[in-house]
Amino acid sequence: MALSRTVARLPVDPGPAAWDEILGPGRTYPQADGRFSTDWLVIGGGFAGLTAAKRLLELRGGDKIVLLEAAKIASGPAGRNSGFMIDLPHELGADGYAASQEVDRKQITLNRHAQAFVRSCFDQYEMPAEAVRSIGRINGAVNARGEAHNADYAHHLDTLGEPFEALSSGDMKQITGSAYYKSGLFLPGAVMLQPALYIRSLADGIATKEKAPVQIFENSPAISFEQQKDSWLVHTPSARIAAKNIILAVNGHAESFGFFKDRLMHVFTYASMTEPLSDEQSRRLGGEENWGITPSDPMGSTIRRHDGYGGNRLVIRNRWTYNPSMTTSDRQIDAFGRDQDKAFQRRFPMLADVKMAYRWSGRLCLSRNSSPAFGEVAPSLYSACCQNGLGTAKGTLSGIGAVELATRSNSEIVTDLLSYAPPQKLPPQPVATIGANLLLKWREFKAGREI
After folding, report:
1. How far apart, in whole angstroms, are the C-alpha atoms of residue 237 and residue 257?
2. DSSP 189
């Protein structure tokens, strides 16, 4: 029987996509309209979807390629990302970041493949310098528990033969201006993105700088799809599109399309971005103008300082909620924003006069066993979903992998992504929601001043 489904939910992203907002107006793309056909239809305009479209240009450049974005390019989760493209083990679903040596070595290789892909796009499309900065990151420790996490992580990195530099509290203050951190690990392999600028630039590149460009449509959510004899018919509010192949790059919304039901955890995290620092505030803070701190405890606060379009700003991200409805509320954003203000003041008491200009939430998709939602889920329909909280690297990899699977290209990425067990089934409701939120609260409690 031919598959026919209505998409259960459309994306809802409360709060502004601050990284996109500070760039000001950019290129716009039309809304899909009328009836037309395509060889390839990519659904989703984030890291996975745009990467998939770019990889299709490389492998199937003579084919017609269309990309649908439900809202505006860079206004969804990709423009809400904190911009850390991490090469090293970074398992958000566990108490610590590392796994076994064999697993971690393979993941490092693949993550660096994703970084190389991003750098090649950066070079080819002549993106602004701040879109992709290879400046590394710091794993910061605030308390004894955090220092113990970092000591374990450093030992694991030593075993893997990966470089790092131990930072004292004085080093941390010299870099960040903050005396809050007891110590840190500088990890040189991370790439720091201005995520919205990278996403905008990648979209612009594939849509305007190729011989046979990708057609991008904004504000064009897929609302239903049905299997036909030799193609798929996809409906948007104003268009009917016949597609020979579909790449589904919608992360947790794979479940809205009827795939991986009751197997994906929809988690939100929350962030605030300051107004631009004045010259006087920057002098008061001291430190360097561009850096990023991931917390030694996965539940702690991620902090960035970024200088570029929109001025020199600080970003703080923390707090987690499990929301199977795939949306959150302005009330939660405001409540967690107050927590972020306190965390900000603990770190930067010299910036008491600095106000937050933006507050927002961002959707993540996790699975219980950290497996991706990847593969051919129906004939000629390929899923590149569930990035397990690491959308920059794993979204890029899944976009590449889905295309290489669809085009029958043998690759290490495809082999790896297909090697995972399917995402594990979740407990029934309301047990799943109660249990997940209790676990998040317990882990946040254990993180203590790392938040």
Report:
1. 16
2. T
* Helices 47-59, 391-406: crossing angle, 10 deg rounding: 40
In CATH terms, the fold of domain 4-427 is: FAD/NAD(P)-binding domain (3.50.50)
Cis (ω within 30 of 0) for the bond into 324?
A: no
The model carries a pTM of 0.96
How far is Cα 406 from Cα 382, in angstroms, rounded to an integer? 7
User: In Å, how far from its chain's centre is CA 67?
Assistant: 19
Write the pLDDT tens digit of every residue in 320-371.
999 999 999 999 999 999 999 999 999 999 999 999 999 999 999 999 999 9
Q: State the CB neighbour count (10 A cutoff) for residue 31.
A: 14
Q: Each residue of 368-401: pLDDT tens digit?
A: 999 999 999 999 999 999 999 888 999 999 999 9
Q: What is the dihedral of CA 209, 214, 219, 225, to 10 degrees?
A: -170
Q: Which helix (H) or strand (E) element contains residue 267?
A: strand 265-274
Extract the runs of DSSP E, i.e. beta strands, from 16-62: 34-43
**Helices in 190-264 by DSSP H: which ranges?**
195-208
Q: What is the pLDDT of residues 42-65, one digit of tens each?
A: 999 999 999 999 999 999 999 999
Going by their DSSP bridges, the two strands 137-141 and 183-187 should be labelled as antiparallel
CA 220 to chain centroid, in Å, comes to 21
The Cα 391–Cα 412 span in angstroms is 19
Q: Please give the biggest Cα pair distance in the chain.
A: 68
Share of the chain above pLDDT 70, in %: 98
Question: Residue 17: what residue type?
Answer: A
